[in-house]
Write a structure and sequence with these properties.
Number of strands of chain B: 8
CATH superfamily of chain B: Alpha/Beta hydrolase fold, catalytic domain
Shape of chain A: globular
Oligomer: heterodimer
Pfam families (chain B): Abhydrolase_1
Number of helices of chain B: 15
Helix content of chain B: 40-55%
Number of domains of chain B: 1
Order of helices and strands of chain B: EEEHEHEHEHHHHHHHHEHHEHH
Largest sheet of chain B: 8 strands, mixed
InterPro entries (chain B): AB_hydrolase_1 (IPR000073), AB_hydrolase_fold (IPR029058), Epox_hydrolase-like (IPR000639)
Shape of chain B: globular
Number of helices of chain A: 14
EC number (chain B): 3.3.2.10
CATH superfamily of chain A: Alpha/Beta hydrolase fold, catalytic domain
Largest interface: A-B, 25 and 27 residues
CATH topology of chain A: Rossmann fold
Order of helices and strands of chain A: EEEHEHEHEHHHHHHHEHHEHH
CATH class of chain A: Alpha Beta
Strand order of the largest sheet of chain A: 1-2-4-3-5-6-7-8
Family (chain B): Belongs to the AB hydrolase superfamily. Epoxide hydrolase family.
CATH topology of chain B: Rossmann fold
Distance between the termini of chain A: 24 Å
Strand content of chain A: 15-25%
CATH architecture of chain A: 3-Layer(aba) Sandwich
GO molecular function (chain B): epoxide hydrolase activity; hydrolase activity
C-alpha cells in the first residue's frame, strides 16, 4: 500500500522535515498534518485515496517526530514554529494555496495556519480537535488545573517525567495504549498514576489496524524518542506565556471554508460539554462561520485510521466541492 | 492639552494608559523609544480639530501603562495583541494607523498580521525590512555595527540601565530627543562617564517637555522600553510564519534626512529605488524632510499633521 509513497527530506524554517509524497505533482496540493504521538504513516489510507483521485498529497513527519529534525528545547515548538515549518513546505512546492487536513496536534497547526496565513489555505479539514480561541480571561494553566493533577497535559509538562513513565513499557505497548484507546474522557489519570500506566491495551486488535502497522510506529519512536512530541505540550509554556502569542487574533473570525470531522466516541466527547456539542454550538459558528460538521458513529480518536474510507471520502468530497468538482 | 482625556484600558492582560481626544474616524498613534503618548501632543489636538478621534497610548512598558517584568512579554505579537485588544474595547473595527520608531515597527507588523484592522498607515523613521531567515535580528546588527551599537548595548538586562543611571535624566532626555547626529549610535560604556552637556534646547523642545519625559522615566525607568530590544531575537523566531508575505495596506512613509536610520548604508537606495515597495506594494508616497531629525512629529508638528491628514483624507 505504501510502496509507491516517496519519502524525501525538505529544508524548511531552519530544519529538515521528512516528507511522504504521492500523486501527480501537477495536481492541487493536499497537506496532511498528523497528531500526537504519530507520524505521516497515520495518513496512509488518505495518501493512497487522495492521490488516486487527482491530488498531489504531501504528508510530513512534523518537527520532533520520526525522521524529521527534533530541536532540543521546547521553546522551539510553538505554533509559530510549526506554522512556519508548513509555510516553508508550501514554498518548497511553489504552492500559493493548499488544501490542508490536520488531526489532533496537526489540527491545531491547521487552525493556526488559518489565523496566521489565511492567504495560503484554500480549505481546511480538522479531525478531532476544534479551533479553541484563546480566552484572555482564562489562562490555559488555570483551565487545566480544573481537571486535576492527573490531566495528561499537566503530566506532560515537566521535562523527563512522561519520557520516564513511557520508558517503563516497550514502544510497541506504548503505541498500542495510544492508538487503541477507546476512552472518551479528557484523559485524566487517578491520583499517583501516570497516564501511560492508566491507558489500557485491549486483548485483541480491532480490525482497522495490524500488529505490523503498529510496529511501524514503534520502530520510529524507538529511534527518535518522545521528547520532541512532548515538547509541543511544553511549548504551551504554561508558566510564562500562556499562549500569549495568539493575542493578536483575539475575536478573529476564520472565514476560510472548513470541515470538522470527529468520532462520537473521541476523547472529550463524553458528557454534556463535549467537543462535538461545542463545535455545533452558536459560539463556534460565530467564529468559524463557514463550517461543516461530520460526526462518525462509533469512531474514536485515531479516526483517519479507524474509519479510513469514510474519512477519505469526506475529505475528498470537501476539497472537490471547493474546486467545483462533483462526484 | 487639558482637553485631552486620559483613561486606562484593560487589554491583553495589561492596563494601558490611553490619551485621546475628539470624535470621528479613529487615528491610532504609536510612539517609539524612549518615548510616550506625549510625543503626539500636537497631532492629538490637530486631528481632533480635523474631525477625527485621535488616540495615543503609552505602549506596554512605558509611562502609565503596565510593565510586565520579563522581556519575553515584549514580542511584536504581544504589542500587536495589546493594540487589537484596545481596538476591541473601543468597539473600533478599523483604524488609521500612525507609527514612529518602535511604533513604526509595531505598525508594520500590525499591518502584516491583522491587515483587516487597518485602513491606512503613515509610518515614520523606520522602514519595513523582511525577516532574514538565516540571521537573527540582533546578531545582524552586531555583525554590521559591532557590540557597542546601541541595540547590542541594550541587550543585557540591567547593563545599560546602570549606564543611564550615571547621567541626570533631564540631560539624558535632552540628548535623546534633540541630537541631529547622523552616525550609527554606538555607545561604549565610556560615553556615559564623559557625556558632554547638550546644546541649548531647540525651539520645538521646551524645558517643560524635558521635565515631562524626565519625570515619567525617572518614575518608571527605562527597562520596559528596553525590553522591546531584548525581545527582538524572540520576535524574529516567532514571526517566521510571515516570511515572504507583503504588507497589503496603503502606506505613506516619512523620514527626516538627519535621522540616523536614514543614514544606514543602503537605506536611501532601499527606500527610493524600489526595495521598500517590493515588500509594501501599496506604498503610495515617500517624504524626506530636509534638515529634520528623528523626532519629526515634535520637530515639525504642523507639517507632519498636514502630511498625515493629506494621506488619510483620501480614504
Amino acid at each position: 500500500m505504501t510502496s509507491e509513497v516517496r519519502e524525501k527530506k525538505i529544508k524548511t524554517n531552519g530544519i529538515w522535515l521528512n516528507v511522504a509524497e504521492k500523486g501527480d505533482e501537477g495536481e492541487p496540493l493536499v497537506l496532511l498534518l498528523h497528531g500526537f504521538p504519530e507520524t505521516w504513516f497515520s495518513w496512509r489510507h488518505q495518501i493512497d485515496f487522495l492521490s488516486s483521485h487527482g491530488y498531489h498529497v504531501v504528508a510530513p513527519d512534523l518537527r520532533g517526530y520520526a525522521d524529521s529534525d527534533s530541536p532540543p528545547t521546547h521553546e522551539s515548538y510553538t505554533v509559530s514554529h510549526l506554522v512556519a515549518d508548513v509555510i516553508g513546505l508550501l514554498d518548497h512546492y511553489g504552492t500559493a494555496q493548499a488544501f490542508v487536513a490536520g488531526h489532533d496536534w496537526g489540527a491545531i497547526i491547521g487552525w493556526s495556519l488559518c489565523l496566521f496565513r489565511p492567504d495560503r489555505v484554500k480549505g481546511f479539514v480538522s479531525l478531532s480537535v476544534p479551533y479553541s480561541p484563546r480566552d484572555p480571561n482564562l489562562k490555559p494553566s488555570d483551565l487545566f488545573k480544573s481537571f486535576g493533577d492527573g490531566l495528561y497535559i499537566t503530566q506532560f509538562q515537566e521535562p523527563g517525567r512522561a519520557e520516564a513513565a513511557f520508558a517503563k513499557h516497550d514502544c510497541l505497548t506504548v503505541m498500542k495504549k495510544f492508538l487503541l484507546t477507546t476512552r472518551s474522557d479528557f484523559w485524566v489519570a487517578p491520583p499517583n498514576t501516570e497516564i501511560i500506566d492508566d491507558l489500557e491495551v485491549p486483548s485483541t486488535l480491532p480490525d482497522w489496524i495490524t500488529e505490523e502497522e503498529i510496529q511501524v510506529y514503534a520502530d520510529k519512536f524507538q529511534k527518535s524518542g518522545f521528547t520532541g512530541p512532548l515538547n509541543y505540550y511544553r511549548a504551551m509554556d504554561l508558566k510564562l506565556q500562556e499562549l500569549e502569542i495568539l493575542a493578536p487574533w483575539q475575536g478573529y473570525k476564520i472565514v476560510i471554508p472548513t470541515k470538522f470531522i470527529a468520532g462520537d466516541k473521541d476523547i472529550g466527547n463524553e458528557g454534556a460539554n463535549g467537543t462535538i456539542k461545542y463545535v455545533k454550538g452558536e459560539m463556534f459558528k460565530s467564529i468559524v462561520p463557514n463550517l461543516e460538521v461530520v460526526v462518525i458513529e462509533d469512531g474514536h480518536h485515531f479516526i483517519q485510521q479507524e474509519k479510513s474510507e469514510r474519512v477519505s471520502q469526506e475529505i475528498l468530497s470537501f476539497f472537490n466541492k471547493l474546486r467545483n468538482i462533483t462526484e | 492639552m487639558e482637553k485631552i482625556e486620559h483613561t486606562t484600558v484593560s487589554t491583553n492582560g495589561i492596563n494601558m494608559h490611553v490619551a485621546s481626544i475628539g470624535s470621528g474616524p479613529v487615528v491610532l498613534f504609536l510612539h517609539g523609544f524612549p518615548d510616550l503618548w506625549y510625543s503626539w501632543r500636537h497631532q492629538l489636538l490637530s486631528f481632533a480639530d480635523l474631525g477625527y478621534r485621535a488616540i495615543a497610548p503609552d505602549l506596554r512598558g512605558y509611562g502609565d501603562s503596565d510593565s510586565p517584568p520579563s522581556h519575553e512579554s515584549y514580542t511584536l505579537l504581544h504589542i500587536v495583541g495589546d493594540l487589537v485588544g484596545l481596538l476591541d474595547s473601543l468597539g473600533v473595527d478599523q483604524v488609521f494607523l500612525v507609527g514612529h520608531d518602535w511604533g513604526a515597527i509595531i505598525a508594520w507588523w500590525m499591518c502584516m498580521i491583522r491587515p483587516d484592522r487597518v485602513k491606512a498607515l503613515v509610518n515614520m523613521s523606520v522602514e519595513f525590512h523582511p525577516r532574514n531567515p538565516s540571521v537573527k535580528t540582533v546578531d545582524a546588527f552586531k555583525a554590521l555595527f559591532g557590540e557597542d551599537y546601541y541595540i547590542c548595548r541594550f541587550q543585557e538586562p540591567g547593563d545599560i540601565e546602570e549606564d543611564f543611571a550615571q547621567v541626570d535624566t533631564k540631560k539624558l532626555v535632552n540628548g535623546f530627543f534633540t541630537s541631529h547626529n547622523t552616525r550609527p549610535p554606538c555607545i561604549p560604556k565610556s560615553v556615559f562617564r564623559y557625556l558632554p552637556d547638550p546644546p541649548a534646547l531647540p525651539g520645538w523642545f521646551t524645558e517643560q517637555d524635558v521635565c515631562f519625559y524626565a519625570d515619567k522615566f525617572s518614575q518608571k525607568g527605562f527597562t520596559g522600553g528596553l525590553n522591546y530590544y531584548r525581545a527582538m531575537n524572540l520576535s524574529w523566531e516567532l514571526t517566521a510564519p510571515w516570511d515572504g508575505l507583503q504588507i497589503k495596506v496603503p502606506v505613506k512613509y516619512i523620514t527626516g534626512d538627519l535621522d540616523p536610520t536614514y543614514h544606514i548604508p543602503g537605506t536611501k537606495e532601499y527606500i527610493h529605488e524600489g526595495g521598500l515597495k517590493k515588500h509594501v506594494p501599496f506604498l503610495q508616497e515617500v517624504v524626506v524632510m530636509e534638515g529634520v531629525g528623528h523626532f519629526l512629529q515634535q520637530e515639525k508638528p504642523k507639517e507632519i499633521t498636514d502630511h498625515i491628514y493629506g494621506f488619510f483624507k483620501k480614504f
